[in-house]
Amino acid sequence: MSRRESPPPPSPPPQVLGVRRGEVEPDDRPERAEPLSDAEREIIQDTWGHVYKNCEDVGVSVLIRFFVNFPSAKQYFSQFHDMEDPEEMERSSQLRHHACRVMNALNTVVVNLNDPEKVTAVLALVGKAHAIKHKVEPMYFKILSGVILEVLAEDFPEFFPVEVQMVWTKLMGAVYWHVTGAYTEVGWLQVSSSAV
Fold it and tell me: Which superkingdom (predicted)?
């Protein structure tokens, strides 16, 4: 039975980096993201090369798991918010398109890890668009980061041993830090009635 037919049980919603029930508290955010070392950047870029060869399929796997395990996230997607069946999601051209956008944004981050200004600019655009235009609660970025890490570790076990997973966890923490910084910058204060 494939992962899409029987996804793992959902993880509890994360409560880290200052995000609680749809809020970004500036006082709770660390002053800066933990920087990646040269060796860590190299590990990320090397492993990403294997992932990005299959970016659409990996992105679709990520979004299907995200929406199956956290169905409340679908409220932000009018084109597929009523889809329940993972196979229907997999066939959706709109979901595939968004999966490619997610993977391409992550690719831009990975390719530019040696250019912190570019990474900051890209993630600020992502954060501001999701805060202002789409009104997505920032906690969903933390959840999505965890789903991405799970899928990468499961689909590419030969490239994602525990040590590599730890480096990727650090990267995803930095991504989340930058995105929530953009939320803070635009004055985000959205209280959720039911986040997950």
Answer: Eukaryota
**What residues contact residue 140 under an 8 Å CB cut-off, 6+ apart?**
70, 73, 76
Cα–Cα distance, 65 to 71 (Å, whole number): 10
Cβ-proximal residues to 67 (8 Å cutoff; 6+ apart), any chain: 73, 74, 80, 83, 89
- Cβ neighbours of 38 (radius 10 Å): 9
| Radius of gyration for the chain, computed over Cα atoms and rounded to the nearest angstrom | 16
From residue 105, alpha-carbon distances to 32, 56, 67, 123, 180 in Å are: 21, 12, 19, 8, 16
pLDDT tens track for 104-123: 999 999 999 999 999 999 99
Task: Please state, in angstroms and rounded to a whole number, the distance separating the CA atoms of residues 152 and 48.
Answer: 9
Domain limits of the chain?
A: 36-184
Only one residue has tokens 């525990």, namely 162
Rounded distance between C-alpha atoms, residue 145 and residue 66, angstroms: 10
pLDDT, one tens digit per residue, over 40-83 is: 999 999 999 999 999 999 999 999 999 999 999 999 998 888 89
Supply the pTM of this predicted model: 0.81
Q: For residue 189, which phi and psi values (nearest 5 degrees)? A: -155, 80
Q: What is the pLDDT of residues 24-40, one digit of tens each?
A: 444 455 677 789 999 99
Give the separation between CA 169 and CA 20, rounded to whole angstroms: 20
